[in-house]
Every structure is written in structure tokens, then in C-alpha cells.
Design a protein that fits this description.
The chain has 586 residues and is α+β, with helices and mostly antiparallel strands. Among the domains are: 5-16 and 68-90 and 115-306, Pnp Oxidase, Chain A (Roll), CATH 2.30.110; 331-442, 3-Layer(aba) Sandwich (UbiD C-terminal domain-like). Helix content is 28%, strand content 25%. Helix 18 (566-575) packs across helix 19. Residues 9-87 form the 3-octaprenyl-4-hydroxybenzoate carboxy-lyase-like N-terminal domain. It comes from Kyrpidia tusciae (strain DSM 2912 / NBRC 15312 / T2) (Bacillus tusciae). This is UbiD family decarboxylase. Residues 119-313 form the 3-octaprenyl-4-hydroxybenzoate carboxy-lyase-like Rift-related domain.
Length: 586
């Protein structure tokens, strides 16, 4: 596939999927607003040739449609992973007859990895001091703490083993040689920094921008710690990744990257990073994070600066996330025997909702597989896990919910686990990095038919109501500040006794479709704090009874939703409307 960013852009240009813009654009709010308006309408990738305050062109929305993801990666990576998964049992332990029958696969695998390259385009220009503020880094939302690198490829190595990690952790630019490093507790770069910091050592870091699209996919893929991201990138690329050495720097440099920021993250140094509009659609708040002290910025002579914009789904990360899940899905049964299929939902920000089809050959086996999922890498950050043994399409939340809710016995099949580590960006648990989990298990034969129409009468204190899907009703009630314990009252309402799930919201008119419904439900509640139900006493856990009431109202301590600056949005409508329309026009 594409060896570097510019090869990919040439394909997009040839396919009519790239809009090139000569008018100067402001990286403060304006470029992001143009991007958002274009992606909301399924428009083209954007190439801003002139960015105010920077000598570098800006490219965004590279993966913002399923078609561009296909153009970026093609179908070969998914076919290769499926073949690798199907061959795993046959090839372990290796037998010559089996290996001979898989010659094509072995050739593909043999091409994976890195190779030494004397040609190092990424180091054609060296800026030291770095001059970070010359980069066209975006400020995407009005309350952002400043400009961020939104598509950085952060390379680190474990201080003991030398095993590398390539992750995407946002980098806030503080000044010309200092940036924030938003390492989260569950990510490889953070693990490497923890080891170095425990010894009082600084951790060397290289931040790449651009390069083969395969690098971006590998950097955000939820891989186990033992699987090198550069290996996955080369498998997606279909060739070895060329790397070279730069005098005085221990890390290999990805030859075809556009930029390489080199420096160190010292031990014991923290600085407030954020706030920042994140992929949950809210502002992640300012917190102390490690500091990246940049020593030099290397780049191509004609370097291009890639960026993205995150916010309320669906954004560009939705399409890249779906590709990665399809790519890795055949490997889940190998890593977790008994798990037949698994999916996390981009509409919720991925971690808040996961669904899986599991084997349930004896009573309680589904629970075993549920715990296995919750102990696996980034899946350990899952907030709500829905499990069934039915042959449903896990990508279709309607099929999943119907299968589970038809079969769920809330007294024994619903588990709430308090006080667990959670995604750093999820604030519903009350404090950073903490929250709770819930497992919903629906296996075997159906226990009930799910209601599909509103009850004839509803209590007078309810506002509007809508059936989200069979068995799930959304009801508008007064705000949490006015009545914080309302969920316990709703759980006693006899009119709702036949409804498995009742979701309380501030404004039912905001539930316009599946995306807004899932987003509201799963980004605004913590299972241990916000799930209400009548219960029967048990020795070690409650036996829940329907309805299960989910309080998905906004609550004190939640960060605010991201919203565009009205003046900037009006300016884009007024001055860039023609350009936005051209980006959408095919």
C-alpha cells in the first residue's frame, strides 16, 4: 500500500477524495470547524496549503469515510489476519507439511518488520532549538487549553527489554521546546515512563507525524503489550518499514515520516495539561501530566502536517476504529478461547460499551468469558459488557440488546463491580481513573417478550418519553440537581414493571437516533452510582428486579459537552460555505 503520507494523498487526489484549499486558514478553531462541517456531511479530505503562523501545510479528515479507509488500507490486511487466525492451530506446533501448504502466508509474514534504510527523508531538515510553535497544531474547541498535536505517533522503548511501543497520546504545545504528554495509566508509553521514573531516569521519546497510513492504524490499535506496533504496521503495509539512525539519538527514525520530534520526559515533573475536547464529546479536564522536553524537530523539506478533530460521534476516529475492530476480530478467539465475536461501540467512545458472543456450554461459563474479556489489555477499561450465546451480529446494538434483554434474569445475570480502574477520559466515576463496571448476561432460551410501545399512562412527573428499542424506554425527568435520587422512585413505578431498562435523561428530544441514544446512555452514567432497581437481599450481592433504571442525566462534576464557538461557526458559514460545499460535492 502507501509508503508515506504523500502517496496516500496522491491516491485521494486521483480518486476525487481530496479538496485542496489555497485560502489562508487559522489553526485556532477555524480549521477544526471547517473539518467538522465537512465530516458531518461525509465530505472529502482537506489539504490546507496555507496556515496562518506556520510554514507547513495542514491535512485533515484523511480517514473520515469508509471509502477513504478502504483507499488507505485495502482489503489485504483483513484477509491476511483471517488467514493467520485460521492457520494458527494448524501451524502450532510447526509441521513441514502444514508450513508448505501455507507458503503464501509465510511469505506475507516474512515481509513484516523493519529494515535499515540509508535514505532518511524525515531528517532532511533539523531544527534545534525546536520551534514547536511554528507547527500548525490545532486548537479545536473554545475551552481547549491550547494547541495540541492531535495525530502524534509516540515512540518509546521499555528501559529493560527495549521492546517498543507506538501509541497515540495527545501532546499539548506549551512553548517552543516544551509539551505535555497525556500518557494514560493503561497505555504502553505510560508503562515505560513508570519504569524509568521509578529509577529517577528520564525516558527518551520520539514523536512522529505522518508516514504510512499503516502507522496511524497501528498506533491506535488495542494490541497486547507483547505485540510490537511496528510489526502490525508492516503487516498492514505489506512490506517492511524503513528506519534509519540519526547521530546522537538512540531511537530508530521512521524514514518516511513527515516530522520527528525528539526529546525526553523527565522523572518527577508534572504540569497541568488540558482541558481538551475529547472523543467522548466532552472536555477532559486539566490534570497534572508528564512533560515532554523537546530537543530538536526533524522534518522533510516539504513536510506536511497531519491532524484530526475529535468530539461527539461520529467523527473521523469512528471509521478508523471500525476498520481496526474488523481487522483484529479474527484474533479474539485465539487470545480468549470461548469468545466467538466481540465489538466495542464508537458511538459511546468505545470503552463504555462492549458486546460479545460467547460460548455457554455450562451454567456460568458466560461469566467466565466475561471476566476474561475484562482482564484483556484495553478491554479492561470496558464499563458495560453485554454477553450472549446467540448468533447475533455484535456490530448491531439492536440485535445484541434484544438477545440479552429477552434472556437476562436480573437477579443472577446482572453484575455490578464497584471501585475499578477506568478510562482516564471517563469522569462518571467521580474521580480520575476510577469507576465501576457492569456485566449483562443473556443466554439460553428467551424469558420474555420485550415491550415495544409506551405504557398507556405514565406518572405525572415524567416529561416526554420514547421507545429507544424493544425493552428500553427513555424518559425525560427533572434535572439531577433538582432531584438527585429520583432513580430509586422510578424503579418502584408499577407502570414500568414490564420494561427491562428505563433510561432517565434531561431532554428526550436529544435522542434522535441510535448514535445519540447510545452516546447519552453510556457516557453519562456509572453503574455503581447510577443504576437503580428494586432488590431482594442476598448474602454478598443484591438480586435486582425490573425495571433497571439508568440515570443518564448530567451531574455535578461532569465536564461540559463540546460545542463550537458561535462566532467561528458563523464565520465558517459565511466565508467558507462555498469551500465546505465543494468538499461535499462529488
Amino acid at each position: 500500500m502507501h509508503r508515506n503520507l504523500r502517496e496516500f494523498l496522491e491516491v485521494l487526489r486521483r480518486e476525487g477524495e481530496l479538496l485542496e484549499i489555497e485560502e489562508p486558514v487559522d489553526p485556532y478553531l477555524e480549521a477544526a470547524e471547517i473539518h467538522r462541517q465537512v465530516i458531518a456531511q461525509g465530505g472529502r479530505a482537506l489539504y490546507f496549503h496555507r496556515v496562518k503562523g506556520s510554514p507547513f501545510p495542514l491535512v485533515t479528515n484523511l480517514f473520515g469515510t469508509a471509502r477513504r479507509v478502504e483507499l488507505a488500507f485495502g482489503g489485504r490486511p483483513e484477509r491476511l489476519v483471517r488467514e493467520m487466525a485460521s492457520a494458527a492451530e494448524e501451524l502450532l506446533p510447526p509441521r513441514w507439511s502444514a508450513l508448505w501448504g501455507r507458503r503464501g502466508l509465510l511469505k506475507e509474514v516474512a515481509r513484516a518488520g523493519v529494515r535499515r534504510s540509508r535514505d532518511l527523508p524525515v531528517a532532511q531538515v533539523v531544527n534545534s532549538p525546536p520551534g514547536l510553535r511554528k507547527l500548525p497544531a490545532l486548537t479545536c474547541w473554545p475551552e481547549d487549553g491550547g494547541p495540541f498535536l492531535t495525530q502524534p505517533l509516540v515512540y518509546t522503548e521499555h528501559p529493560d527489554t527495549g521492546r517498543h511501543n507506538l501509541g497515540m497520546y495527545r501532546v499539548q504545545i506549551f512553548d517552543d521546546d516544551t509539551a505535555g504528554m497525556h500518557w494514560q495509566i493503561h497505555k504502553g508509553g505510560g508503562f515505560h515512563h513508570h519504569v524509568a521514573e521509578s529509577r529517577g531516569e528520564a525516558l527518551p521519546v520520539t514523536v512522529f507525524l505522518g508516514g504510512p497510513p499503516a502507522l496511524t492504524a497501528a498506533a491506535v490499535a488495542p494490541l497486547p503489550e507483547v505485540v510490537p506496533e511496528l510489526l502490525l504496521a508492516s503487516l498492514i503495509l505489506g512490506d517492511k518499514i524503513p528506519v534509519g539512525r540519526w547521530a546522537g539519538w538512540d531511537h530508530p527514525l521512521i524514514a518516511e515520516a513527515e516530522f520527528a520530534l525528539i526529546g525526553r520526559v523527565p522523572a518527577g515533573v508534572r504540569r497541568l495539561e488540558g482541558p481538551f475536547g475529547d472523543h467522548y464529546g466532552y472536555y477532559s479536564l486539566a490534570h497534572p501530566f508528564p512533560v515532554f522536553q523537546v530537543e530538536a524537530v526533524l522534518h522533510r523539506r516539504d513536510a506536511l502536517f497531519p491532524a484530526t478533530v475529535v468530539g461527539k460521534p461520529k467523527q473521523e476516529d469512528y471509521f478508523l476504529g471500525e476498520f481496526l475492530q474488523r481487522l483484529l476480530a479474527p484474533l479474539f478467539p485465539l487470545a480468549m478461547p470461548g469468545v466467538k465475536d466481540l465489538w466495542t461501540f464508537a458511538e459511546t467512545g468505545f470503552h463504555p460499551l462492549c458486546a460479545a458472543v460467547v460460548r455457554d456450554s455450562y451454567e456460568g461459563e458466560a461469566l467466565v468469558h466475561g471476566f476474561r474479556i475484562l482482564g484483556e489489555g484495553q478491554l479492561s477499561l470496558t464499563k458495560c459488557l453485554f454477553l450472549t450465546d446467540q448468533a447475533v451480529d455484535v456490530r448491531d446494538y439492536r440485535q445484541v440488546f434484544q438477545a440479552v434483554l429477552e434472556r437476562l434474569d436480573p437477579a443472577k445475570d446482572l453484575y455490578v463491580i464497584p471501585d475499578t480502574p477506568m478510562d482516564t477520559l471517563d469522569y462518571t466515576g467521580g474521580r480520575l481513573n476510577h469507576g465501576s463496571k457492569s456485566l449483562w448476561i443473556g443466554t439460553g432460551k428467551p424469558r420474555r417478550a420485550l415491550p415495544t410501545s409506551l405504557p398507556g399512562t405514565l406518572p405525572s412527573y415524567f416529561g416526554g418519553a420514547t421507545v429507544f428499542l424493544p425493552g428500553v424506554i427513555f424518559i425525560e425527568v427533572e434535572s439531577f440537581e433538582q432531584n438527585p435520587t429520583l432513580g430509586s422512585k422510578v424503579a418502584l413505578e408499577k407502570e414500568l414493571a414490564d420494561w427491562p431498562v428505563v433510561v432517565l435523561v434531561d431532554d428526550v428530544k436529544e435522542i434522535r437516533d441510535g448514535t445519540t441514544g447510545l452516546w447519552t446512555w453510556f457516557t453519562r452514567f456509572d453503574p455503581a452510582r447510577d443504576l437503580y432497581a428494586r432488590t431482594r437481599p442476598g448474602r454478598h450481592r443484591p438480586a435486582y428486579q425490573f425495571p433497571l433504571v439508568i440515570d443518564a442525566r448530567m451531574k455535578p462534576g461532569y465536564p461540559g459537552e463540546v460545542e463550537p464557538d458561535p462566532e467561528v461557526a458563523q464565520k465558517v458559514d459565511r466565508e467558507w460555505g462555498r469551500m465546505v460545499a465543494a468538499a461535499v460535492r462529488r
